[in-house]
Fold MoxR family ATPase.
Amino acid sequence: MTQLPEETRQLLNENRHDSPAFADLVRAGGYKPPEDAMLIDAVTALSMGKNILLKGPTGSGKTRFAETLSHLFHQSMFQINSSVDLDAESLMGFKTLDYEDGKQVIRFVPGPVTNAVKNGTFLYIDEINMAKPETLPLINGVLDYRRTITNPFTEEIITAKQGFGVIAAINEGYVGTVPLNEALKNRFVVIDIPYVQGDQLKQLLQSDSQLQDGTILDLFVRLSGDLIQAVDQGKLSEDAASIRALLDACDLSAMIPPKRAIRRAIADKLEEDREKTLVLTMADTLFG
């Protein structure tokens, strides 16, 4: 189990998650979920020793949500960026030659899993379904009731220290991903992460981008809604509606015309010309 700091526990226990104090606490972590229930459920699961899987489209804020949870628990967090090249060394660490008292020795350099388990911190696994299916079973033991893992390089059996918790993120159906096997998926509590929209998106853009013109920010919020709708209709790929890309466009718009900023930060990242044209048409409609 992971101990929840007193100020966070008090605000949750008193059902004051909509209070200014709690809003300030969450904002300091960098992300305010669209629904309070998402935050409450994630905090509850982690405090009970559960692992959580954040499921949502690319750019919806899953990593920022994980960082906010780390902040709420006053926990540091080791991170794994999954890919097809992820292997046991990337997870657990590796052996290297070193010198001690003038003699050559073999030293083990711990990886993110080893560090998180031994230090009792959070472990964040980004895009977990990008990893090869044969790699992830290595950590199954530390994800269930055993809370132990065997280091294949040192044969050490490590028991997770109090405070250890796992947060993973997944983009289902994204290029290069594979379905999670049931044994792994069953070790997580799943929380869906939708795109941030409306007033909440405007607040995020105001706080996290260099653009402060309220009128232009409103137009970017409308653009985001149009992009999300086009993604839902299959007209655009998920990359087009990324909040990360939208923030880049807002930053650039503080210095250059918005339509040009949208081209650089959003449209030109897309692969298909028809998608680029659609995004630029949306921008022209809104920004003239």
Q: What stands out?
A: The mean pLDDT is 86. The chain has two domains: 6-192, 198-287.
